[in-house]
Specification:
The chain is an alpha+beta fold and 356 residues long. The protein has helices at residues 78-97, 125-140, 147-157, 213-223, 226-248, 251-270, 281-297, 321-333; strands spanning 6-14, 16-20, 25-27, 32-33, 37-41, 48-56, 64-67, 70-72, 109-115, 169-172, 185-189, 197-203, 302-306, 312-317, 341-342. α1 runs parallel beside α2 and α1 (78-97) packs antiparallel against α3. The structure holds ligand DP6. The site of ligand DP6 has 14 residues, from α4. It catalyses: (R)-5-diphosphomevalonate + ATP = isopentenyl diphosphate + ADP + phosphate + CO2.
């Protein structure tokens, strides 16, 4: 008699926005970075991926993934395969130790994922996507692994995904081991540590980005002369300064490092050949708006950062919300043709991420 039992687990994972950027791989196959990075996990109220993983001996065919209702070709996707193989191996180890455990590792997997924000528009969709995929399968397989141990798996799906398995402030240590065993993410402070820090997301464009991050960082590593200095001489010290700023809740220092690191990352993009342009006129207007806020306040009260796309993320402390929102409304009204929107601003919650 065949067993029709369907095993199922669901989870959600948040987006994270780096304040020290990951840009460049030292090993593309294992997805090992050239430098450490640090991010803030956003609240799941506004941006998240929801994933359900199921498996059954009654399922036929290969493992499958539906992303936003569209089938994805995961058989030829090496990154997804690397994650699935590792997770199945962990489950297999449990089954060997406990022969009465159902043989989930041999059953076809069905994965269903939904993003509640634009996919691949520079809004860290791959980070939330792979974090949710890894967490959902780890739950389905009842793996005992910690988020840091699972970060090794998520990293192989997409580098930034390893930072979305934790809430609050998360460092991804580049590590030095050739097999990547020390390239892991760890929470350096929970969201409750700095509850009045907030993020405003400016959706400048919801289109798919021009140069995907994997290809963009490869071009930068191969052609930019600025890149080596950034990875080797600038970021290591910045990581230490940023961790100290977060621990001390020193917003001015946090803001300066965040903006300098975003600018340094985009400078290496511009220094690549062919040059990579992620920012547009609205992005530059957002930078001006932040500078106006800071000038009006006479100190740093707002900070911008941009990933591989034109959308801006603005960090500020809650007590400065009126000034920041007012300046943004005014400056962006002056930009012709801008049809974007503000992200909703909601107070922090207990889920582990910063409200955006
Ligand atoms: C600019 O994590 O998308 O957002 O590892 O190739 O999937 P892959 O790259 P990905 O790159 C993110 C780059 C970034 C900076 C960051 O999030 O640290």
């Amino acid at each position: 008699m065949s067993d029709n039992t369907v095993y199922r687990a669901s989870t959600t994972a948040p987006v994270n926005i780096a304040v020290i950027k990951y840009w460049g791989k030292r090993d593309a196959a294992l997805n090992l970075p050239t430098n450490s990075s640090l991010s803030v996990t956003l609240s799941q109220k506004s941006l998240k991926t929801h994933t359900t993983a199921s498996c059954s001996a009654s399922y036929t065919g290969a493992d499958s993934l539906l992303l936003n209702d569209e089938p994805e070709d995961i058989q030829s996707n090496k990154r997804t395969q690397a994650c699935l193989q590792l997770l199945k191996r962990f489950r297999h180890d449990i089954e060997v130790k406990n022969p009465s455990a159902p043989k989930l590792s041999t059953m076809p997997l069905k994965l269903v994922s939904i993003n509640n924000f634009p996919t691949a528009a520079g809004l860290a969709s791959s980070a939330a996507g792979f974090a949710a995929l890894v967490r959902a399968i780890a739950n389905l397989y009842e793996l005992p692994h910690t988020p840091t141990q699972l970060s090794l798996v998520a990293r192989q799906g997409s580098g930034s995904a390893c930072r979305s398995l934790m809430g609050g402030y998360v460092a991804w240590r580049a590590g030095t081991a050739r097999d990547g065993s020390d390239s892991i993410a760890e929470e350096i402070a929970p969201v409750s540590h700095w509850p009045n820090l907030k993020a405003l997301i400016l959706v400048v464009s919801a289109d798919k980005k021009g140069v995907a991050s994997t290809a963009g960082m490869q071009t930068t590593v191969e052609t930019s002369t600025l890149f080596k200095t950034r990875a080797e001489s600038i970021v290591p010290q910045r990581m230490e300064e940023m961790e100290a700023a977060i621990h001390a809740k020193d917003f001015a220092k946090f803001a300066e490092i965040t903006m300098r690191d975003s600018n340094s990352f985009h400078a290496t993009c511009l220094d690549s050949w062919p040059p990579i342009h992620y920012l547009n006129d609205v992005s530059r207007a957002a930078m001006n708006a932040v500078e106006t806020c800071n000038r009006k306040a006479g100190k740093l009260i707002a900070a911008y950062t941009f990933d591989a796309g034109p959308n801006a993320v603005i960090y500020y402390e809650e007590e400065n919300e009126k000034l920041v929102a007012g300046v943004f409304r005014y400056v962006l009204q002056q930009v012709k043709g801008w049809e974007g929107e503000y992200g909703a601003q909601i107070p922090s919650n207990e889920q582990g991420g910063l409200e955006a």
